[in-house]
Structure of DUF503 domain-containing protein:
Amino acid sequence: MIVSAEVDCIIYEAQSLKEKRAVLKRIKTRLQNEFNIAVSELDFQNLWQRTRLGLVTIASDKVIAEQTMQQALAFIDSFPEIERTETNQEWL
């Protein structure tokens, strides 16, 4: 089972692309290490307060894949400097 999500976020405190990339690098690295999922910035690379992240996880069971994705989304929500505004999930 493959679960993917596109997550739109706002980074309120970023005042430059450098600050945005520092926040995203920390979040992406921790997501990859803690949940073993693939993460990439999909859109808004040149806007310093907005981003769209793509997350993908693969598991042998739909329940496990869904739990992993929900934990990863909750993990993103735990960062005070980023706000998740819209999330679209797909199951393959």
Notes: The first strand starts at residue 2 and ends at 10.
